[in-house]
Amino acid sequence: MRAVVLLLLGVNLVSASLHTVQYFYTATTGIENFPRFVDVGMLNGKQISMYDSISKRKIPKQKWMEENLDQEYWDSSTEILRGAEEHFLHQIQVAMSRFNQSAGVHTFQRMYGCEWDDETGATNGFDEYGYDGEDFVSVDVKEGRLISTVPQGISTVVKWNNERKNLDREKHYIKTVCIEWLQKYVEYGKSSLQKTVSPQVSLLQKNPSSPVTCHATGFYPRGIIISWMKNGQEHHEDVDLGDLLPNEDGTFQRTSTISVTPDEWKKNKFICVVEHQGKTISSILKEKKIRAKNETSVPIGIIGAVAAVILLVVIGVAGFMVYRKKKGFKPVEASDNSSNERITDTLISSGSGSSTSS
């Protein structure tokens, strides 16, 4: 399974016409002074909402979300997520049991949502679950079935695939309800989504003999290309392209590091080329342009509450996972993710709507 950070951001180069809404549930165990459950909502790579087990409230993270959605939406979503929290904390215990674990740091996560191309009308959906950073089960939306790549997920797959009613509702949510809400969000936040911010580019180096990093930060939208040129030709040897990361203000950052000796780059012309939204920024590798890494503050790249998920990556227990709604809840039409959260109960422990472990 891809790293959480990458899932949070989606693909690195995205067409301006392609829009994505994603929700991330994360339950944890064994981490002190940290929320045991977090839900993060993302639109086109920007955080739009959050919930955690400390505040126990779903709140907007964009002004346009607050302005366009009434209190009933936030109240109903909060109720749902409180149920999801309780259920997810149960499910992480079930998963630990299946993997013969009784203690330690573990994560149980879900990532679901949909995509819509406003030019072609094409849509796509996804619903993936993971345990401790690895695939556990996922929904094949096209085929309408659950699949798993690990033995511990087989019993869940067998049970869930026999529950056609639940799978049909899941498919309906992803292919219809999710798309409808995605289109609403795009309309609500169009002024914010259409803004363009160019990157700031710096050349960084720890010491004279260490690799040189081309660091682009503060850009939006997220699509960016960073490449190296040597004497006018593309250069790919000993180049390491870093992950796309979010900044706290909703912009993004990315690095490309080249391993080259001072003697080599002084005898040749190396250029870092950054392309973003039709604009090209070129930085020639010269000694006077290189800044020491300890003299600059390079942000870690955290989108507000998404820090919860990214922290899990840092401590080496990243993944994604699922929640399935507690039995007894009824759909609330006011919320975008309510119908999906309501129908997807007990995926791991039962698949039949109960909350008892199997």
TrEMBL record:
<dbReference type="InterPro" id="IPR011162">
    <property type="entry name" value="MHC_I/II-like_Ag-recog"/>
</dbReference>
<dbReference type="InterPro" id="IPR001039">
    <property type="entry name" value="MHC_I_a_a1/a2"/>
</dbReference>
<dbReference type="InterPro" id="IPR037055">
    <property type="entry name" value="MHC_I-like_Ag-recog_sf"/>
</dbReference>
<dbReference type="InterPro" id="IPR003597">
    <property type="entry name" value="Ig_C1-set"/>
</dbReference>
<dbReference type="InterPro" id="IPR036179">
    <property type="entry name" value="Ig-like_dom_sf"/>
</dbReference>
<dbReference type="Pfam" id="PF00129">
    <property type="entry name" value="MHC_I"/>
</dbReference>
<protein>
    <submittedName>
        <fullName>MHC class I antigen</fullName>
    </submittedName>
</protein>
<dbReference type="GO" id="GO:0005615">
    <property type="term" value="C:extracellular space"/>
</dbReference>
<feature type="transmembrane region" description="Helical">
    <location>
        <begin position="298"/>
        <end position="323"/>
    </location>
</feature>
<dbReference type="InterPro" id="IPR007110">
    <property type="entry name" value="Ig-like_dom"/>
</dbReference>
<feature type="domain" description="Ig-like">
    <location>
        <begin position="199"/>
        <end position="291"/>
    </location>
</feature>
<dbReference type="GO" id="GO:0009897">
    <property type="term" value="C:external side of plasma membrane"/>
</dbReference>
<feature type="region of interest" description="Disordered">
    <location>
        <begin position="331"/>
        <end position="358"/>
    </location>
</feature>
<keyword id="KW-0732">Signal</keyword>
<keyword id="KW-0472">Membrane</keyword>
<feature type="signal peptide">
    <location>
        <begin position="1"/>
        <end position="16"/>
    </location>
</feature>
<dbReference type="InterPro" id="IPR013783">
    <property type="entry name" value="Ig-like_fold"/>
</dbReference>
<keyword id="KW-0325">Glycoprotein</keyword>
<keyword id="KW-0812">Transmembrane</keyword>
<dbReference type="Pfam" id="PF07654">
    <property type="entry name" value="C1-set"/>
</dbReference>
<dbReference type="InterPro" id="IPR011161">
    <property type="entry name" value="MHC_I-like_Ag-recog"/>
</dbReference>
<dbReference type="InterPro" id="IPR050208">
    <property type="entry name" value="MHC_class-I_related"/>
</dbReference>
<keyword id="KW-1133">Transmembrane helix</keyword>
<comment type="similarity">
    <text>Belongs to the MHC class I family.</text>
</comment>
<feature type="compositionally biased region" description="Low complexity">
    <location>
        <begin position="349"/>
        <end position="358"/>
    </location>
</feature>
<dbReference type="GO" id="GO:0006955">
    <property type="term" value="P:immune response"/>
</dbReference>
